[in-house]
Write a structure and sequence with these properties.
alpha/beta, Urease, subunit C, domain 1, 2 domains, globular, binds zinc ion, four-stranded parallel β-sheet
């Protein structure tokens, strides 16, 4: 039988309610039974006490967007490179990599995320290798099987490959399967629609990269520019493919593949796009580190997303276009880009908003009664701190410990 655990902390940041000083969390069968001030805690027999009297305790961080199998590309591509040249480099490196190497690097990427307090990961993977690793490590997540195929001739083969990859993954409570039609410019219309329907029919979550660069917008609208050259260079150009005359968001909407998805990037959107994102309940993943790595000087439309009540979470993207996989650094980057955002809101973007993006908000994302006890533990400095949320966002790079469903995952705890 599962133990009952009492966790006593100097500070608790529940996210869904204000920080608690000298707080207690009671965990039973992996879920939170009580959270609050010590004096309000009911008298419950506990098998174990976890002493965090010199620590901050908060929900495990959620990184809804990465590509772990690209972790081996860390530092191998020149930062600031043009987008299509970057794609060429990624393709050439991944062609050289074998399965063992991909798994090795994915493990390294996961270790980096875990030491930075990540308990739930949304990973895009061509063949689903990260699924087993997440399962073995006891982490929570969604592995989105990637679908790519711009030329119509690739459709049947790609759908078959998607089926095969998904069938190879057995059921597991903490790690789920999703589908990621890569982007509007790397799939034919037919494959976008078919992979979307494939996921919807099976109730799998869907992630699509959208409006990452202006070259994508140009290509979808007019069929011209460096993405067309890229497709021709790869021998994938399809004479039957017609530009939509519209934005990537409106193009996806016209194909009926926007509803309920997780939209990654959305760096370039207009008012009409925003209406559609709102109507279709799209969650947006902002990747500030990746944008910075590419040297993109964009005015990210974060404030308009937030004004409209669109859910925005922070993602790291992969180590092929970021220096590290660390949600704390993404919070700091967002703070420096949007100084008006308060610390609490930044923490929400790496916890509950990430949970909403992964459709897991009924289970994780904050510390409240009934939710899973996915928790990170952060050391406090000597002396007083003014605001635990400010301390977490401005000072922290690594965590001291991690619990998932109340079980100690990271051994540094004791
Ligand atoms: Zn990505």
């Amino acid at each position: 039988m599962d133990k009952t655990i009492r966790l006593e902390a100097k500070w608790i940041i529940p996210v869904s309610s204000p920080p608690i000083e000298d707080g207690v969390i009671i965990i039973r069968e992996g879920r939170i039974l009580f959270i609050g001030k010590e004096e309000d805690c009911p008298d419950v027999y506990c098998d174990e006490i976890i002493d965090c009297q010199h620590q901050i305790v908060m929900p495990g961080l959620i990184n809804p967007h990465t590509h772990l199998s690209l972790s081996g590309l860390k530092g191998r591509i020149r930062e600031g490179i043009g987008f299509t040249d970057w794609i060429r480099e990624v393709v050439s490196y991944t062609r050289e990599m074998n399965q063992e190497e991909e798994i090795f690097w994915a493990k390294m990427g996961i270790d980096e995320l875990v030491s930075a307090g990540t308990t739930t990961i949304g990973d895009i993977s061509r063949l689903g290798y990260s699924w087993n690793i997440l399962k073995e490590k006891g982490l929570r997540g969604i592995v989105y099987i990637e679908v790519i195929g711009f030329n119509r001739s690739q459709r049947e083969k790609e759908i078959r490959a998607l089926q095969v990859s998904i069938e190879s993954l057995s059921l597991n409570g903490k790690v789920r399967v999703g589908v990621s039609p890569h982007s509007p410019y790397t799939l034919s219309q037919a494959l976008l629609k078919e992979s979307y329907s494939f996921a919807v029919e099976r109730d799998y979550p869907i992630a699509i990269h959208i409006a990452e660069t202006l070259s994508e917008s140009e290509f979808i609208k007019r069929g011209t520019g460096e993405i067309r050259d890229l497709m021709i260079g790869f021998g994938l150009w399809d004479e039957g493919w017609n530009p939509s005359g519209d934005s990537p968001v409106r193009y996806l909407n016209s194909l009926g593949v926007l509803k309920g998805i997780m939209g990654i990037h959305l760096n370039h959107v207009d008012d009409q796009d925003l209406d559609l994102l709102e109507e279709n309940k799209v969650s947006v993943i902002f990747c500030p580190g990746s944008n910075q790595w590419f040297g993109r000087e964009i005015r990210y439309p974060l404030s308009v997303f937030l004004e409209r009540g669109i859910n925005v979470a922070l993602g790291t993207d992969s180590l092929a276009s970021n220096w590290s996989l660390n949600p704390f650094l993404e919070m700091r980057r967002t703070k420096s880009l949007f100084p008006q955002l308060d610390y609490h809101h930044l923490i929400e973007m790496c916890t509950i908003n990430g949970a909403k993006a992964l459709n897991m908000e009924d289970q994780i994302g904050d510390l409240s009664i009934g939710k899973y006890a996915d928790i990170v533990i952060i050391d406090l400095p000597d002396g007083m701190i003014r605001d635990p949320a400010e301390y977490v966002v401005t000072k922290i790079n690594k965590v001291k410990g991690i619990l998932i469903e109340g079980k100690v995952l990271m051994p540094k705890l004791k």
